[in-house]
Amino acid sequence: MECQEEKPIIYTMENKPIVTCAGDQGLFTSLYTSLAQQLPREPMEWRRTYGRAPKMIHLEANFVQFKEELLPKEGNKALLTFPFLHIYWTDCCDTEAYKSTVKEDMTRWQTSLRAHASADWVIIVVETNDTKKKNKTNILPRSSIVDKIRSDFCNKQNDRCVVLSDPLKDSSRSQESWNSLLLKLRTLLLMSFTKNLGRFEDDMRTLREKRTQPGWSFCEYFMVQEELAFVFEMLQQFEDALVQYDELDALFTQYVLNFGAGDTANWLGSFCAPVRSWSGLLLRRPIDMEKRDGIQRGEASLLDLRSYLFSRQCTLLIFLLRPWEVTQRALELLHNCVQELRLLEVSVLEGALDCWVFLSCLEVLHRIEGCCDQAQLAANCSHTVGLWAYATDKLKSLGELCGLVSEKGPTSEDLNRTVDLLAGLGDERPETVSSLQSPYKKLKEALSSVEAFERHYLELSHAAMEMYRAIGRLRSARLVGKSLAEFYMRKGDPERAETFLQEALKSYTSEGWSLPVTHTRKQIAECQKLLDRTEDYLQTSALLAGDVNLTTEERKHFCQEILTFAGKSEDQSPKVTLSMAVFSQLTRLQFRPATASVHSGAVLQAELTLRCLMPVSVHIQQLAVSIHFDLERAGTNGRSKGAPRQTNPGTVEFSQANSSAGPESASAAGPPLELDEIQDRSPSDNSLNSTGVVCKNTHLVMRHHDSSSPTDTPNCVSPPTVTVKDGGQMLKVQDVTLEPGNNSITFTAPSGQPGTYTLRQLYATVGQVQFVLPHIYPSVQYEVYSQEPQLTVEPLSEPLLAGLPQMVKFTLLTGHYAVKKGDALQLSNTDTMPILPSASCTARITSPAAELVSESALSIQSSEKVTSISLPATPPYHTLEFHLEVLCIIPHGPDRLANERLTNGEVRHRPRSYSHPDTPMTAIDQRMSIDCPWSIYSTLLALTFYIPFKTKHSLLSAGNRKYIQVCVQNMSDVNFMLAEVKLTEKQHESLELQSLNTKTQQLLCSKHSVFCLWEVSWKDDLPSCLQCVFSANFSPPKQDVSAFKPFHYQFQLERVTTLYSVRAEILPPTGEQHCRSGFLCGLEVCITRLTEPAEGEVAEDSKIDTDGLRTTKLMYEVADSSSNWAVCGKSSGMVLMPMAADATHKVQIEVMPLFAGHLPFPKIKVLKYLPHTAALAIQPDPDSCVENDSLSLLDKVLDDQGDTASIRSRGSVHSVGSGDQQQQQRGVAMPRLEPFTAGQVFNQSYTQQVLVLPATDDHIMEVNAT
Amino acid sequence: MAVCIAVIAKENYPLYIRSLPTQNELKFHYTVHTSLDVVEEKISAAGKSLGDQRELYLGLLYPTEDYKVYGYVTNSKVKFVIVVDSSNTSLRDNEIRSMFRKLHNSFTDVMCNPFHNPGDTIQSKAFDGIVSGMMVQTG
């Protein structure tokens, strides 16, 4: 290989570490090819100092012939030209030759190496078989030469001499030899690197530490460290190389920052020189030698240094396959450079930096495009888009600076400026001269003419926008679009500008950024004005006039714009319709009356509260609300409306979500659900079929969820399409002035026809402009109704008492009917409830608002059948009220009249008394039938009266004497006076009822009773049945005699006569004076017949004995309910009683007192015993419980036959056959027991007592102490 | 220190935005609004990788020639944006982080106020004070 004699070509990537070769050049040349090929084949691990991670490294070398000049002189820091290894080649095998020439040569070589303190050397001895063969005789063994060399030169460093055997032969021995050589060379090279680079780095660090010394220069240091970077790059350690540049970058940055902080380094002065060239980055060369030289000479400007540094970083990053880091770093660099120039207060021509940034951006982008394919670029837009946008930005400001954006084109001043800027670009670099799209050419062209500028600018803008869109950065895209719009505005193309502005505005409104909204809207207004789009402009103006972000002056301006337009008297042109929302807000609507429901023809007022958003007061010619009228049909579809949802009756508050400044998204939740209850009723019987809840505003709620586009937001620029509905009816107010803020406007609502009126739209007309609120929401309704006349009757005081005059209140709601003079109510008279005529009866007429209108006397005429009440004239929807006194007659007898017919032919409903669950009093419903003038049908009304008394009667006997007691109980809550208490018997003249009552008048307090007693006396026979009528007069206490009203009570007494007298006697045991407890004593029961049998009695239950004596069977029973007595033996029995007066039967029963003391006699019951034949004859009263009792008693007797012998004997007499037959006959014909009625048996010893002594004299007293 | 501090609701409308009065307020509104693009990008990127163990601090959103825009997002997706002047080189990442933490704490206090309606713009003197402190402090 040709050795490189002069300075080696460096600065290309073909750089390799230099290895010098001395000795036999011919030999080396023959081996060079294989050596150069094989050396990098195997990687070698490079262990490094300072804890840096070891690296696998493929070593290459540049083999050059050894020359003394190649050895670095003292102080030379160059690393690239540094020979890392020196090799001496020899194939000498002849001792003589060695001694004579080779050794000498080697010594010289060693001496020069040593002189330069280079210890990285190796001697390679090549041995071939050929040489061996040639000089066989005087040849020393091969090893001896090597040994000699080793002993001569490798002083204890035997590894410095390597043998290579048969290098040109293809044998395993040769290969082995090569491998060991290569390994050795690699090891030695790495050792050399470590040593020399380490030394270099140490020196470099030392130099860096001197940076605070006055003479220190960054540029010098830069060169030193870059040398290291070069070496790393040479070794393909790009990462390490990049680190060197990054360190330099950081060091420089720190100096600039320190400068900013007031710590100035002298060397920094050169970088503060005014910028004269702004040719941008140059990234197409691996190393920009021009700039490097500049740095080396200390003449580089800040931009030069930064450019050079970045170009190197860029190169390395691309080697490292990290192109996206380049773009990111580029953006940082550009921003940083601008800042640094500012910080260092470097004077720069205006626009020069823009040129530099623009060119640099494009250069970086070109460089990246050059090393990536299209797909990669598209996928990594996010990395490049920043540069695109930055370039766009800079070009725009350049265009503005050079007068390329204005409509008129650049002025001469602008042109001069352009020339200056172009001058700073210098000439185009040779690398890009041939390229058509070089950044240099682009900039030059863009600045050359208005058209070219526009083309380039649009191209860049659209590219940036497209990329932003592609990566989803829509906001950024819109911002670029907005900037583009500004450009179009400057160019006088508002049409294009508007599209971009609208898009941007949409984004700001949807996200609620009020300040950008206002700003963009202002720009839009400008566009629209220029475009002469009146309606849009007015709408936008209205929005702006109400925009609180603007100053009052601005708002007034926009408001004036509207008013000026409105003031134009153009009759032909249609009115401009704008959205109400921007002009004023409907905040509240209040109905008066609050029910929002009036009868037809009544006055209903609606008060609207409008918040005017305009900055000045606005005069409105007409404010109108259109109304939708719905004829109300009763029971449509059987649906009933839910309760009104407003908490505040009659007032509707409108939500304020559409305030233009507020966050739009707050209302993004959508309108609140408006729910109503529905009930589906069957049309036939009005029963509930189904019930549910419906959402009334589904269309609004659902729409909001479907579309995320905020087109229907109140902030949208284009006014909502407003269709002015031609409502037939309207609420109107003329000539209103709306002041800024809340205004209250009162409307009078039409209320002619009954039905539902829904407020639909609100219009405000200002000259040519009409503001429309297309939907009033939530919907507001009021109702106009028409009512049928209604008559009600109710008690003036509860409860109505029967038997006394009571006041009832008649209420007539006239509804739509006007009561004329002469109209009368016709009441059908009834006997049970006569209407009492009264002298002064006045009627009150009140208005719907419950105000008294008039008061007039009523005239009441009563005929036999009808009571006619003439009504005073009453206007519709008024209330007429009057009182009448009625009396409900207490029904007193069981005898009822046959059905009567009323005057109108209806069947009279007899009042029937019944017990009312609410009161203990008995109630009577009284029906009234009233004929009203407005209807052909009678009105039926019912009143409930209560009977104040409850009456009971009883028959008392003493032997044959009879008494009748009547008890009157006052059930009502008032006290009464009772007078003229009387008892009469209707049928029997001979009967005399002698009153035993002393008082003529008696107070009967509430909830108390009065008892009255009469003795019955008779002449011949006491009739068995008495029809009695109790009568009394009653009145509330302290009333006039005339106020007493009669009260009757009818009753009937049957079987009055006393048939038997029962007398009991207790006989002490024989020899004792008194009964003793625990000892048996006798009970003698004596039953005496008092009367001759009456006719009915004979037929009923007597039996004629064989001896012709009529007898009847009685059953007696001794029953001690209080367990005072123990009955021993039989307790009941049958007696056969002759049916004649004074017939007596005595029964002896043994009883035992169980306690001492005055014991009442055991109870003795006497019952009629009816044989089964008689039982058949008598139809048993189904209601009689006595029968059941008797049956059960008999059953007991039959089942337990050993108990009562008497019954058994009787039973056997009457039983027709065996027990089976008896069983069969039971229920069909059985003996029955029947009690006597109250008066028929007189018990003489009733409640009589007998003294019973204790059984012994031991008096035991039980004392319980607790 | 900071030239503009903004709090942005989950739905991306501003809850609070304040800039140095000497500067063009509108410009900052645009800047902060645009930064939401990057915030969203970062949130979605973070969401993919880490799940719920998310770093709230988003770091530098994007630099401009004049400003550096930093972002932070709470777990409830409320965003904080701090804009710092580029010439202010003394601010380190840690200081920005601590500013965000302070801001977050104060914001939490605002949310804890029972009279504050979440979703409304922030009108709190205490919060104002914290923000003012961050804007005035010059480092």
TrEMBL record, chain A:
One of the GO biological process terms: intra-Golgi vesicle-mediated transport
Pfam family, one: TRAPPC10
One GO CC term, this protein: cytosol
Subcellular compartments: Golgi apparatus
Record-annotated TRAPPC10 Ig-like domain positions: 792-945
Biased composition (Low complexity): 659-672, 1206-1219
InterPro entries referenced in this protein's UniProt entry, alphabetically: Ig_TRAPPC10, TPR-like_helical_dom_sf, TRAPPC10/Trs130, TRAPPC10/Trs130_C, TRAPPC10/Trs130_N
Domain TRAPPC10/Trs130 C-terminal: 1024-1253
Main localization of the protein described in the UniProt heading: Golgi
Domain TRAPPC10/Trs130 N-terminal: 14-326
Compositionally biased residues, Polar residues: 645-658
Region (Disordered): 636-691, 1205-1227
Top-level division of the source organism's lineage: Eukaryota
Keywords: Golgi apparatus, Transport
PANTHER family: EPILEPSY HOLOPROSENCEPHALY CANDIDATE 1/TMEM1, TRAFFICKING PROTEIN PARTICLE COMPLEX SUBUNIT 10
Protein name (Swiss-Prot/TrEMBL): Trafficking protein particle complex 10
From TrEMBL, chain B:
Domain of life: Eukaryota
Biological process, per Gene Ontology: endoplasmic reticulum to Golgi vesicle-mediated transport
Annotated keywords: ER-Golgi transport, Transport
Compartment list: Cytoplasm, Perinuclear region
TM region positions: none
Keyword Flavoprotein: no
Annotated Pfam families: Sedlin_N
Cellular-component GO terms for this entry: perinuclear region of cytoplasm
InterPro entries to which the protein is assigned, alphabetical: Longin-like_dom_sf, Sedlin, TRAPPC2L
Entry's family note: Belongs to the TRAPP small subunits family. Sedlin subfamily.
PANTHER family referenced in this protein's UniProt entry, alphabetically: TRAFFICKING PROTEIN PARTICLE COMPLEX SUBUNIT 2
UniProt name for this protein: Trafficking protein particle complex subunit 2-like protein
Naturally occurring in which organism (per UniProt): Zoarces viviparus (Viviparous eelpout)
